[in-house]
Amino acid sequence: MQNGTLYLIPVPLAEEAAHKTFTPYLVDTINQIDTYIVENSKTARRFLKEAGLKTPQKDLIVHDYDKHSRNSSLVPFFKELLEGKDVGLMSEAGCPGIADPGADIVAEAHKRGIKVVPLVGPSSILLALMASGFNGQSFTFWGYLPIDKEQRSKRIKDLELSGTRYKQTQLFIETPFRNNQMMEEILKSCKPSTQLCVACNLTGEDEFIKTQSIYNWRKEEIDLHKKPTIFLLS
Question: What's the pTM?
Answer without folding.
Answer: 0.91
